């Protein structure tokens, strides 16, 4: 086995703490992303509802 193959193999084999840390990091990033998307979505929804209410009151 050459040195390159060995290091490549070793790189893929992370110990449990590394795997756990990476999963937590990914989960944290994902949660932040979902939070941002949800914030933008709900903000747009609120603006649409407010516009609809104003339009309903002024459309008469």
| Class per helix and strand makeup | mainly alpha
Q: Note the gap between the termini.
A: 82 Å
Largest sheet: none
Shape: rod-shaped
Residue windows where pLDDT falls under 50 for at least 5 positions: none
Please state roughly what percent of the residues sit in beta strands, choosing from under 5%, 5-15%, 15-25%, 25-35%, 35-45% or over 45%: under 5%
Order of helices and strands: HH
Instruction: State the share of residues found in helices, binned by percent.
Output: over 70%
How many strands appear in the DSSP assignment? 0
- List the total number of helices: 2
Instruction: Give the radius of gyration.
Output: 25 Å
Average predicted confidence as pLDDT: 85
Could you explain how this protein is built, in words?
The chain is mostly helical. The protein contains 2 helices and no strands. The chain has helices spanning 3-12, 16-58. It is rod-shaped, with a radius of gyration of 25 Å.
């Amino acid at each position: 086995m050459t040195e390159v193959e060995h290091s490549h193999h070793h790189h893929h084999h992370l110990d449990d703490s590394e795997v756990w840390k990476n999963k937590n990091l990914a989960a944290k990033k994902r949660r932040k992303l979902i939070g941002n998307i949800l914030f933008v979505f709900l903000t747009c929804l609120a603006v649409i509802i407010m516009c609809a209410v104003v339009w309903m009151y002024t459309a008469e």
